[in-house]
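fyi for ur records
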Amino acid sequence: MYVRPAAAAAAALLGFTLTVLGGTASYAATGPGSAQGPAGLLGNPVVYAHRGASAYAPENTLDAVDLAMRLGFHWVENDVQRTKDGELVVVHDDTLSRTTDVEQVFPDRSPWRVRDFTAAEIARLDAGSWFGQEYTGARVPTLREYLDRVQRNQQRLLLEIKKPELYPGIEQQTLKVLDEAGWLDARHVQQRLVVQSFSADCVRIVHDLRPDLVTAFLGTPPVADLPRYAQFTDRINPWHTTITAEWVAAVHGLLGAHGKTMEVDTWIVDDATTARRVQAMGVDGIITNAPDVVQEAVGGY
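which gave:
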């Protein structure tokens, strides 16, 4: 495969070594903040399995992680919240009613908020049968269980700290669990982990505590505000309906917290037409419930 000189030059300037293996171009990270390369500059976006392969398995479960692995996807995304007794668990909503049988198991505990239940109580819940009977008995994993499974599968993790305003100190606690699970060594930090949040304060706290970590802010700040975000994050990850090619170019025009070109990973894209549209805008990654559909459309990995 012929590698465009411009792409190779861009990769070199941004701290990546471009190689050709089996007829396809790839890159290797060569410095901090390189959990992935500037894929938008190299042509094919990275494909992230949102909450695992959640179009085909119950979201944020180990089943969804394993299915993403079997489909061949290296990156999975998840959501982290905290129980009443201080355990970090992987669940998207701040209530348990949509994705578990909590209303049947604990009918008198409305509104069924994650923070009102202990880890042992949440471990009793069925987090799979709402999606399909074949997943009956799936559980809400703890963050440690989730990290161990992603590690076993040799996958990479885009970890979202969900609603940190509900859980004071969750940034420090998340880093502690990551460290205990072996996810804060140089190899994981440089190639296998990104921490993101909708809260700019949360992203800033994570960056201050662990300046070596790759971080991302979820949202679409105005172009005029982007330099402020670049001081403490490496990526801006927007909803796909809120961006233009010009906005993506504005993000790419800045150096992030690690002195590298800022990146854009957009969400949630589940159809081929939209995937090709955001690829044409130059995004670096696409976060999707249906990673196989997106990969087929854009040739990502």
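The CA atoms of residues 89 and 143 lie 5 Å apart. thats all i got for now
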